[in-house]
Amino acid sequence: MLRFPADISPDGRGFAVSFPDIPEALTCGYTLESACEMAADALATAMSFSGQAAGNNRQLTCLQLGQARRTMQGIAAASASGPCLMTFDLFDNLDDATPATPPSEPLADGAVVLRGIARPDAEALLADVHAITIAAPWRHMITPGGLKMSVAMTNCGHAGWVTDAGGYRYDPIDPLSGQLWPAMPASFRHLATTAAAQAGFAGFEPDACLINRYEPGTRLSLHQDRDERDFNAPIVSVSLGLPAIFLFGGMRRADPPQRVRLAHGDVVVWGGPSRLAFHGVAPLADGDHPLLGRLRINLTFRKAL
Ligand code: MD3
Ligand code: FE
Q: Computed over its alpha carbons, how large is the radius of gyration of the chain?
């Protein structure tokens, strides 16, 4: 029987979950449930991208993974609310326990996760994304260093974020079409302003939305968002489709990042001191989402101008 331990996270505020022999699957979460979900994702990623290098654990089937996640969620729901040290069996049958996902979690000073709040709007948002990509198609931009980004991007609003040999900037014109970027749909603006207000940023008026498309294996390396004029305005991010492990670092590139699972419908408001933190996205694990199949789409709302 495969066993794995749960422990108090290094910062003492949440939980850490690890698998024997799979160091990539060590994850921390604010709740045991989120730590377990992330561990299951990290395990899936390790299996998809690291082959069979490190032993039997990588040969778990997808079916077993689903079962593992349900079991871990069940244990999380059944456990006492305080941090505890424990070891449990991966395939214990605890499927009856229904975990309650907390509605919002403080991630860091100024950063708030609003779990699932975009779910009811997801279909409408995706229809709008589709319409935007007819006028402003997905493209893989080139970094100033000459590397092609693995994440495909487009924009809407009064300005779009672009990168090419000349550097990073916001441009009112899509360089691909020579036309203005498509207008920001009402569905986008409404979600962004509502989420910002819930997180304490009433009056946030985004003028730019960068739309990122991830396929399995694609990633966004650690960076800061510094191309906007006013760092006092927050950034609102909306995750749709396959879940991702978001890497949330500190003010220095070398600060070790927290791993935060962002799933379909999760909205995060990044303001205050977190606004200039280093952050990125770990290589996307493969999966099959009911609305988006093998894709993750992320919207980031910004006050750029
Ligand atoms: C924390 N996008 O587009 S969204 C980006 O999932 C970007 O596509 C990621 O980083 C994605 O620049 C992460 C979450 C996010 C966005 C902007 C931030 C977190 C942030 C800016 C400052 C701090
Ligand atoms: Fe960013």
A: 20
